[in-house]
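Intended use. Records like the one below are meant for learning the mapping from a protein sequence to its folded structure. Do not use them to infer anything beyond what is encoded.
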Amino acid sequence: MLSTKTGFPNESGPIGIFDSGYGGLTILRQIRSLMPQYDYVYLGDNARAPYGTRSFELVYEFTLQAVTHLFQQGCPLVILGCNTASAKALRTIQQKDLPLLDMTRRVLGVIRPTAERVGILTQTRHVGVVATPGTIKSHTYELEIAKLYPDVVVTGEACPMWVPLVENYEYDSPGADYFVKKSLDRLLEKDSLIDCIILGCTHYPLLLNKIQKYVPQGVRVMPQGEYVAASLKCYLERHPDMERRLSTGGQVLYQTTEQADVFQSNASVFMGQDVSAQRVNL
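Structure written out for the chain above:
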């Protein structure tokens, strides 16, 4: 029997992936590449994006609405494919809201998997993070990395112009060079020993060519998608009870809070293929 909401089997459900806009599509793309057998629902709150400059309270409120919606779509597991939501809302949702919503479901973020990996990769033990103002202000990367690798020095740099560059199709323009170089120069002026730079926003992989152009030789740039995908695969191997609850039809349902045709046009750039979406209200 199929769910009237999603078309996925009622006895199992898809993995939900949420982002404030389009950046989480870079996470979805990597997860699907590694685990194409599962069904997925991608939800973009594009009508209220960006989240990067919003208050903790609003980000939490919006993220909880999104998680609740994805649970209603039958998702046993939801990934917050948004650094701002992971930084400002994940812990509260896990500790406060899940016991009230459904203790058998899980909500995971993108910051912890990246923090776990960076401590293995850095040689100098000096790490940089470029992210939205909200993520930098939360100090979540510093806190998560410190829990795992207390000897690692973390330096952050807010990049408020990077997301607009991506969402306005300017990520490959000469103007992007100016803003990318300016932010990276500021970061490396703060700490010249940095040998790994975390792209702490899921939009930033579209700027990867520009970023690599302006980082010194020997500095590793870390897009999150592959680390999150690998971490999720390991999580499901460690939790076979959750893995058994996931439907395996290889389908993807795209949902957005903005006009579907606008989302489809932009999302196709991130996914490298045509995307069909439906508009939803949260």
